Amino acid sequence: MEILIVFYAIFFLFLAVQHLNWAVMFIIIALPSYLIRFHIFSLPINLLELMIMLAFFVWFVANYYKLKTNLLRNFQKDSNKIKIDYPFKLEIILLLIISFVAVAVAGFSSSSLGIWKAYFFEPILFFILVLNVFKNEQTARINLEKILWSLTLSALIVSIFAIYQKITGAFIFNEFWASVATRRVTSFFNYPNAVGLYLGPIILILIGWLTQIIANQKLRIKNCESKIKQILEISFIFVTVILSLLAIYFAKSEGAMLGVIIGLIIFGLLINKKSRLTVFLFIIIFSSSIYVYSPAKNYLITKITLSDLSGQIRQQQWEETLKMLKDKRIISGAGLANYQKIIQQYHREGIFFNSENDPDFHRKTVFNEEYKKKHWQPTEIYLYPHNIILNFWSELGLAGLLLFIWIIGKYFYLSIINLFEKKNKYLILGLFGAMIVIVVHGLVDVPYFKNDLAILFWLLIAMMGVINFEKQVNGSVAEYHIRQ
Q: Among 104, 267, 421, 443, which is most buried by a count of CB atoms within 10 Å?
C-alpha cells in the first residue's frame, strides 16, 4: 500500500509540474478519493488531501516571485493601477480565524486539528488554486468548461458504480442496504445519503451548462464534423444527468431528491416567461394529483411533518443540540469535532415511535410496559446535528454560523448580478440551483462537513468567482482606458 502511494504521489507531482490544469481537473474528478486513507510519518492523511497539497505546492513554487511582487505592489500608491479584488477574500480570512478559534474551543485535540485541515484549510487552498489556474480574461469560457467536464466525469463514474450496485447488490457492505427488498446504493461512499449529497448539486450545474450550450445555438454549425461533436457532447452531459438522478433515486436519498426538485423549480422560474408558465402548470398538476391520490398525500404529509422514524430522530437531535447550545454555548458552540463528546450529557438513549399511528399511543407508552418495549427505538449520537444551521452553529459557534449565512447569501447575490451576462446566464442559474440543493438538503443532513462536500462547496464559490473575475476584468480595463 505504501509503495503504491509513493508511486502515485510521484506520478501526480510530475503531472502537476507538466500540466497543472490537468492535475486540478483530476482532483475534481477524484473527489471521492478521500476514502483512501493512509499515514505519512504517523500523520493521518487521505489521497484527496495529498493531491491538493502537491498541486498547491507546485503552483506556489511556480508563481512565488509573481506572488511576492503582487504583495509588495499592494502597499504602493498607484492611481492608474488596475486593481481587481477576488471574491470572498475577507470571508476566507475570517473563516480561517473563526474555524481555528473553534479548534481552540475543542482544546486543540488531534481530531479538531484534522477536521480544520480537511474541511477549511485545504478547501480554501483548493479555492485559491482553482481561481488562479482557471482564471483567464481571454479564455474564461474554455477554462470553465474544463471544470465542468471534470464534474461531469466524476458524476458519471459515481453514478455508474451506484447503478451497478443496484443491479447486482455487490460492494454494499451493510446487509440491510444490500438486501433486495431494502436495497440502497452507496457507490464509493460509506452510506446512501452521501450519494445524494454529492450528486445533487452537480446535477443542477450540469443542467445549467446543458441549457447554456443549447441556448448559445452551437448546433448551428456548417461543419458536419463539428456538429456531430457538439451533439455527442450534449448527449454525454444529458446521459450523465439521467444516470445521476437514477443513482440518487436508488440511494433513496429523499433530502437530495427534494433539493433537486426545488432547485429545478427555481431554475425553471428564472429562465424566461415560457418556462415560468410551464413550471406553474407542473406545480398545479402535481399538487392536484397528490391531493387526489391519498397514499401519496399521506406520504408527503408524513415527510413534511417529520412524522416518520427518520424525522423523529432528526427532531430529537435538534432538541438535544438546542439544549446544548442554550447551556452557555450559544456563542462558542461545542467546538470543532467536539459535538459527539459534548452532546452526550444531553442525549436521550431513544424515543418511542408511533409506527402504527395509534391515537392512544401516549397513554399506552405510560401504562403498558410491553407496548413501551415494542415501540422503543434506540438512537445513537451522530457526528453532527443533521441541520445546516445547527451543524455550523455547533461546530463553529455563532460567529461561524453567521459567516456561512453571509457567504451563501453573497454567493446568491453574485449569481443574481451576473445573470445580466448573457454568455453565462444559464450556467449561473445552474450554479444558483446547486446552492439551493445544498441548502434544502442541508435542512435534514450534513452538506458541508465531509472532505468531498467541503471541496465541492468551495468549488462552486470558485466557479462563481471565475465568472465574476471576467466581469471585473472587463469593467476595470474599460475604466482604465477612460482614465487614460
A: 267
